[in-house]
Automatic annotation (TrEMBL):
L-citrulline binds at Y93, S98, N129, R133, S184, S193, E269, Y281. One of its GO terms (molecular function) is argininosuccinate synthase activity. Homotetramer. It comes from Pseudoroseicyclus aestuarii. InterPro entries: Arginosuc_syn_C, Arginosuc_syn_N, Arginosuc_synth, Arginosuc_synth_CS, Arginosuc_synth_type_1_subfam, AS_cat/multimer_dom_body, Rossmann-like_a/b/a_fold. PROSITE patterns: ARGININOSUCCIN_SYN_1, ARGININOSUCCIN_SYN_2. Keywords: Amino-acid biosynthesis, Arginine biosynthesis, ATP-binding, Cytoplasm, Ligase, Nucleotide-binding. L-aspartate binds at T125, N129, D130. It catalyses: L-citrulline + L-aspartate + ATP = 2-(N(omega)-L-arginino)succinate + AMP + diphosphate + H(+). Belongs to the argininosuccinate synthase family. Type 1 subfamily. This is Argininosuccinate synthase.
Length: 411
């Protein structure tokens, strides 16, 4: 296969940290190309302006430095649609890292078009899922875009080589970056993910210092706290009666969940690239949001629609995990899910207490719950109990036929 010519301009997903700063310099030295940096504020809780100063120090023109607050777009257009599906990968993971990648890729491709860049670059390694997510999203949005993944190309295969490259190119190295970090962290408004090093042996309990944002349940308040979450068409729109923007709601739920030790997950998952990986996920607000959304669906969603939706959810979650957000099958499933949410509106009251969140009440103008039909008291003719006899007989017919055949064959 013929070698590709060096790119002239590359848009780099840039955090301002040591690794992406090394990548920035490597792109400049390896390809002799112009670099545009994109730093997304996804609610990771870090000051992002230092990334601007770092990029300028590494020779990036001010007009080529993009730092954007995308928190509202992240929750409105990515997190909320996913939560309408109650999406859980392998039954537990709330997909906090997975759902952020298509938004980052979307902006990388858009900025490349705006600036005339002919390539984008990311800092994901060749062992993980993120390389797949970044690149599948990019190609879905621009089939002609070139993607550069330095971790799959360079020979900086050890921490020592990375630090030597940084020193040789006058890239500042913080004292706490000179040794091996005890674990790596990815964070955004939905969750914090910790993996690697001290977490690599799944037979060993994760040390408490791994927790980044959630109070240990043992240290959470001894008094439960009650909150109310209001939904409109499947999306949370208010907390305790106060209307808020999507990102503000998730921020507030994060605060409440973190305070009460809610949302800690220790998971060994199956990566799309084939290996198993152990991670500690902290998703305080998302855990509350999932319980609340389930709570309002209980009274507003028909059983047929709800059960079908639940059967679609594992496939939907897998598509997001594997990087297929911008795929026709995910969009088809999303259309079905969104159609189910038309009347999923109302309020859920939840109890937060020492690592748990539990729906304790729910109400809606669209409720399908009929107390007249389920009461143990006199129902005034709302339900004729004798109807159940024929219902049971019809449903038992095939079972009786199967049992009769089995008895015949046995005898």
């Amino acid at each position: 296969m013929a070698l590709q010519p060096a790119p002239k301009k590359v848009v780099l997903a840039y955090s301002g940290g040591l690794d992406t700063s090394i990548i920035l310099k490597w792109l400049q030295t390896e390809y002799r190309c112009e670099v545009v940096t994109f730093t997304a504020d996804l609610g990771q809780g870090e000051e992002l302006e230092p990334a601007r100063a770092k990029a300028e120090m590494l020779g990036i023109k001010p007009e080529n430095i993009y730092i954007e607050d995308v928190r509202e777009e992240f929750v409105r257009d990515f997190v909320n649609p996913m939560f309408r599906a109650n999406a859980l990968y392998e039954g537990q993971y709330l997909l906090g890292t997975s759902i952020a990648r298509p938004l980052i890729s979307k902006r990388l491709v858009e900025i490349a078009e705006e600036t005339g860049a002919d390539a984008i670059a990311h800092g994901a390694t060749g062992k993980g899922n993120d390389q797949v997510r970044f690149e599948l999203a990019a190609y879905a949005l621009n089939p002609d875009i070139r993607v550069i993944a330095p971790w799959r190309e360079w020979d900086l295969t050890s921490r020592t080589k990375l630090l030597e490259f940084a020193e040789a190119n006058q890239i500042p190295i913080a004292k706490n970056k000179r040794g091996e970090a005890p674990f790596s962290v990815d964070a955004n408004l939905l969750h914090t993910s910790s993996e690697g090093r001290v977490l690599e042996d799944p037979a060993q309990e994760a040390p408490d210092y791994v927790l980044q944002r959630i109070t240990r349940p043992e240290d959470a308040p001894d008094t439960p706290e009650m909150i109310e979450v209001t939904f409109e068409k499947g999306d949370a729109v208010a907390i305790d009666g106060e209307a808020m923007s999507p990102a503000t709601i998730l921020t507030r739920l994060n605060e409440l969940g973190a305070k009460h030790g809610i949302g800690i997950l220790d998971l060994v998952e199956n990566r799309f690239v084939g290996m198993k990986s152990r991670g500690i996920y902290e998703t305080p607000g998302g855990t509350i949001l999932l319980e609340a959304h389930r709570g309002i669906e209980q009274i507003t969603l028909d059983s047929g629609a709800g059960h079908l939706k639940d059967s679609l959810m594992p496939r939907y979650a897998e598509l997001i995990y594997n990087g297929f957000w911008f795929s026709p099958e995910r969009e088809m499933l999303q259309a079905a899910i969104d159609a189910s949410q038309t009347l999923v509106s109302g309020t859920v009251r939840l109890k937060l207490y020492k690592g748990s969140v539990r729906s304790v009440a729910r109400w809606s103008e669209n409720s399908l719950y009929s107390e007249a039909h389920v009461t143990f008291e006199e129902d005034a003719g709302a339900y004729d109990q004798t109807d159940a006899q024929g219902f049971i007989r019809l449903n038992a017919l095939r079972l009786k036929l199967l049992a009769a055949r089995a008895r015949r064959l046995k005898g």
